[in-house]
Design goal:
Rossmann fold; 9 strands; alpha/beta; 254 residues; binds adenosine monophosphate; 3-stranded antiparallel sheet; 11 helices
Length: 254
């Protein structure tokens, strides 16, 4: 696996790849990789000639007071997992590489995205996600990108970004990988105590039952929202100060 740290070298490598007529799959991540991330990597490896994974904890998608500096980072373990899986390129830029200039053109989301779920409870978050993904897509120029269903509104925002900015990228959305007991895997889960991890299982139970009172009855869980959009029911909550999200497609989960 080749580790690419700068934009010019990454763009050069990607140009060579495209000139060879090879397809490129791209999995953007913030690292601290778990089996959920790896399911996206596996899908790209099986569908594309080359797979690029990025690890970048993007400051512009964290609000003031959120856990940017405490976000889990585990680079050596991540590299090992990606190397073993057979990933071709790891794009590993630092903050200055992605944001060399403090002044930047920013994104504004339509109200139908900004006004629901995490769009509403984390104002500015998806503007940061759209900004970094637009940059990453232009740097990597993939044919396919891979995202997890767990971050439901993110998948809608990225699909809209791809369409509105004519990226010509195919977006693949893959099912949520869960721990035993149903808790959706998340990099932030490692901050949960054993007790909190068990309490957090109520999120998936409540989604499947369509019943938010199950969460309200769990004293260790502080509910942020329990919201339906079309056939998707999504939840965000804090467990022991750790913010977790999950969602289900109604009528699809057993
Ligand atoms: P993150 O590193 O949290 O930004 O996530 C990178 C990608 O992995 C996003 O597309 C997430 O939706 C996806 N992802 C995170 N957790 C899971 C999971 N448990 N199952 C499937 N995909 C996931």
């Amino acid at each position: 696996m080749q580790v690419l740290r700068t934009i010019p070298i990454t763009q050069k490598m990607m140009t060579l790849t495209l000139e060879k007529g090879k397809s490129v799959g791209f999995v953007p991540t913030m690292g601290a990789l778990h089996d959920g991330h790896m399911s996206l990597v596996e899908a790209s490896l099986s569908e594309c000639d080359y797979t690029v994974v990025s690890i970048f904890v993007n400051p512009t998608q964290f609000l003031l007071g959120e856990d940017f500096s405490d976000y889990p980072r585990d680079l050596e373990a991540d590299k090992l997992k990606l190397e073993r899986a057979g990933v071709d390129y790891l794009f590993l830029p630092d903050e200055k590489e992605i944001y060399p200039d403090e002044e930047m053109i920013e994104f504004k989301l339509p109200e139908s995205y900004a006004g629901i779920m995490c769009g509403k409870s984390r104002p500015g978050h998806f503007e940061g996600v759209a900004q970094v993904c637009a940059k990453l897509f232009n740097i990597i120029r993939p044919g396919k990108v891979y995202f997890g269903q767990k971050d439901y509104l993110q998948t809608l925002v990225i699909q809209k970004l791809i369409e509105d900015l004519n990226f010509g990228i195919e977006m693949r959305v893959l099912p949520t990988v869960r721990e035993k007991g149903g808790l959706a895997m998340s990099s932030r889960n490692k901050y949960l105590t054993d007790e909190e991890r068990v309490a957090a299982q109520v999120l998936y139970k409540a989604l499947k039952a369509g019943d938010k009172s199950l969460i309200e009855a769990e004293p260790m869980v502080e509910l942020e929202y329990f919201e339906r959009n079309g056939d998707v029911l999504a939840v965000a909550a804090k467990v022991g100060g750790v913010r977790l999200v999950d969602c289900v497609r109604l009528g699809r989960e057993k």
